[in-house]
Design brief:
This protein has four helices and nine strands; from the N terminus they run ααβββαβββββαβ. Strands 4-5-6-8-7-3-2-1-9 form a nine-stranded mixed sheet. It is elongated.
C-alpha cells in the first residue's frame, strides 16, 4: 500500500472529523441535561412537589398550577437547547413566557413551578404523571419515563 497517496487526504478530512465530533458531543450534552429519566411526584393535601431527574441534574419544584398542553402551543421560539424530530429540549419562549422544556413527545404537561418558572414535561406515559398530580389523597409515586 502506498501511503504517499493517502497522506494528502488526512489534512482535508481531519477538520470534518473534529467538527462532527464537536456536534455529536454537544447533542449528547443536551440529551444528558434535558431528557428526563424519572419523574417523582409527592402530593400531600393541597401541595404538590415534582422531582425531574435527568442524567446530569435533578430539579425539585413545588407545582402551583398545571395543565395538559401541546408542544406546538407552548413552545414557540427556542432560546437555548435542541429541537429536532419529537425532541424539544432546553429553554423556550412562548405565550406562557419562558418555559424550560423536557419534551420527548408532542403532548405533555405545562407546570408553573413554585418559584415562578414554567416547565413543560412531555413523554409517552405522561398520563401517569397527570393522574398522580390530580390525586387528592396523599400520594408518592415515581414514574420511569418512556421516550
Amino acid at each position: 500500500m502506498d501511503w504517499g497517496l493517502i497522506t494528502p487526504i488526512f489534512p482535508v478530512l481531519l477538520p470534518f472529523l473534529f467538527i462532527t465530533l464537536f456536534v455529536v458531543l454537544r447533542i449528547k450534552r443536551e440529551f444528558d441535561e434535558y431528557v428526563p429519566m424519572r419523574v417523582a411526584i409527592r402530593v400531600d393535601g393541597g401541595s404538590r412537589k415534582v422531582v425531574i431527574e435527568t442524567r446530569k441534574k435533578r430539579i425539585e419544584t413545588a407545582v402551583r398550577d398545571f395543565r395538559k398542553a401541546s408542544s406546538k402551543e407552548v413552545l414557540e421560539v427556542r432560546i437555548n437547547g435542541l429541537s429536532f424530530g419529537k425532541y424539544r429540549l432546553g429553554l423556550y419562549k412562548g405565550p406562557y413566557g419562558y418555559v424550560e422544556s423536557y419534551a420527548t413527545s408532542d403532548l405533555g404537561i405545562l407546570m408553573e413551578g413554585g418559584e415562578g418558572k414554567n416547565y413543560f414535561l412531555a413523554f409517552k406515559n405522561v398520563d401517569e404523571l397527570l393522574k398522580a398530580l390530580e390525586a387528592k389523597e396523599k400520594t408518592e409515586e415515581v414514574i420511569s419515563v418512556k421516550s
